[in-house]
Amino acid sequence: MKKITMLDVAKRANVSKSTVSQYLNGRYDYMGEKTRKRIEKAIAELNYQPNIVARSLKQKRTSTIGVIIANILHSFSTEVIRAIEDICHQHDYHVIVCNADDEPEKEKKYIEMLKAKQVDGLIVFPTGGNLDLYQSMVSENYPLVFIDRSVPGIAVDSVLLNNEKAAKLAVDYFVQHGYERIGIVTTSLLRNITPRLERLSGYRKALEEHGLPMKDEYIVATQIEQISSALGKMFTSESPPDALLAANDLALMEVLEFVKENQLEIPNQIALIGIDNTAFAHIYSPTLTTIKQPTFEMGKKAAERLFESIEGKSTSKQTVICRFEPEIIERESVKKQLGKGSD
Amino acid sequence: MKKITMLDVAKRANVSKSTVSQYLNGRYDYMGEKTRKRIEKAIAELNYQPNIVARSLKQKRTSTIGVIIANILHSFSTEVIRAIEDICHQHDYHVIVCNADDEPEKEKKYIEMLKAKQVDGLIVFPTGGNLDLYQSMVSENYPLVFIDRSVPGIAVDSVLLNNEKAAKLAVDYFVQHGYERIGIVTTSLLRNITPRLERLSGYRKALEEHGLPMKDEYIVATQIEQISSALGKMFTSESPPDALLAANDLALMEVLEFVKENQLEIPNQIALIGIDNTAFAHIYSPTLTTIKQPTFEMGKKAAERLFESIEGKSTSKQTVICRFEPEIIERESVKKQLGKGSD
DNA sequence: CTGTTAGCGCATTCAG
DNA sequence: CTGAATGCGCTAACAG
Predict the structure, then answer these.
(1) Separation of first and last alpha carbons in chain A
(2) Is the pTM of this model over 0.85?
(3) φ and ψ of B206, to 5 deg
(4) Domains of chain A, start order
(5) For the purposes of burial, counting CB atoms within 10 Å of the CB of B292, is it exposed (0-12), middle (13-18) or buried (19 or more)?
(6) Does any strand D atom come closer than 7 Å to the Cβ of B25?
(7) Which residues in chain A have their CB less than 8 angstroms from residue B284's CB?
(8) Which residue has the higher pLDDT, B25 or A337?
């Protein structure tokens, strides 16, 4: 089955290629009624479909953007992708999603691949491990937006959660309900991932505000495989925490596994709040109190910033960091005891 | 920042375009050592990156395949995608994933878009709503593989689960543990989705084998929003089921919500088995017995079939339906009572 | 071993 | 209102 091209259509309709092109691009104004009909008919009869590759080559744009996520396993990532797709769809853009698996190598490979594919711009959850590459994109003015994480020293528009606030919301909530031995568990800080650092610092500041002591034993920050054993150590200390903040959904899963294995009772033995609105938060027993990110709005914002940048109307040459506000969703994983805490 | 092309490289290295092209495609054999060095140097200095779009236009292949999934919300879909990506990555293919949201309209739009983008082949979870389109692809011999679902009357290679077996595994397990009032809940059958039909028929056959009566009241098959109320009706009947098979992970979520709202106790009041290995099956209390699909193998198989078809070595012109075997993962959501059931 | 040539399928002047 | 001509960046003969 031979590919049919514009030329075939043109021949069959007895017009020239360019007339067909006009038709395809909706410039009917300059076209005889009957001509249009003929073209229409020819296209239908031949079942012609334009070749986007050729068009892109000519137009020097692909109407496609690339999205590179650090880790597809985070529910936040998948939700943001959906939002980005929605927006792109509305703007007649296509999206190619790649998963860097938190490996800078892969991230680099994908960025290069997507640029070679001539995508018009990139939204990335940066691993933080490719400073040169980021910088070179900035230098060449390549449309780029970071989301979820930012990279110190790299001037790129970023869409972030107010992470300190997210941690603070949780700590405040614990304190209001009378908790004082509040721990936090997060995935590894080695790569200086923005949200993790900020959530931890938000946690610290909030404790300080409430005049609570800061104990290193109450902080677990290690790679996912080691969280369980770190929790084990934490809970065999003489005065283990009675409340735990899981800084993201993966950490939350680890905590829940640990809770299960050790038959801890939520919220009586340990109160729990997770950041990210896990799919089963409302199904688990007890239902889980969570801090929710406005994922849809964040994805939307990122896409819109990118479009502005692509369309060159980024009048304000300066980098914008956009913060979104988290929200607590109260459920049952924190005891409603009357507090002896502050406030 | 002007785009630099092969020509720029050629000039700077004092060779012609084609020599550069040779270099890029690894045909160094016919090339002077110094020439190669010069080209290498020029490329590095200019930070040249080839334009894949132009190459694709010329080569009439994009080294890219498209994947259209029916519903991204099913964990099965996301797992299969990961598998497909892995395999494609190994074969130096790229993947573009689109989510049809179970809407034939969207599916159609995406198939057309991907073909216009000249992808070399398509793996699709068919919605079943675009018979003409599927058929036309078959007619024009377009590389295509269905996964998860097949479409009656359309001769396309398909990778499927042995769905009847999956349902049978669950029913057998229930019966062995003494259950006789076994219900099933699945999402809507309206569109004749293969796995749902087959799982239901597997359920029926298994009941029959065990000489158990088939009651319509024990079957919930409706769209997701109405599952909850259907369950309500089921459980207010005079003799409600004491065991429930959730035919996929979305149905399982609905069941769990219902269980929670009505404070049913698993497994004492209701035993539960879900098809699809939900992420929190081992964390839920009690842990959930599930029927697992070999998602990785299935994705891999689909990709491999597609490559064969793309590379034209699909010697056997006949359509192949490939079935994979499900496996039961025993956990705690079924009571270990001694059975009065058969066997 | 290297350069010349001719398109891939389309969009876009610019004349008619 | 329509058609002829040009080139996007690259590959692939085919000559040197």
Answers:
(1) 76
(2) yes
(3) -65, -40
(4) 6-50 (1.10.260.40), 62-161+295-326 (3.40.50.2300), 163-292 (3.40.50.2300)
(5) middle
(6) yes
(7) 280, 283-284
(8) B25
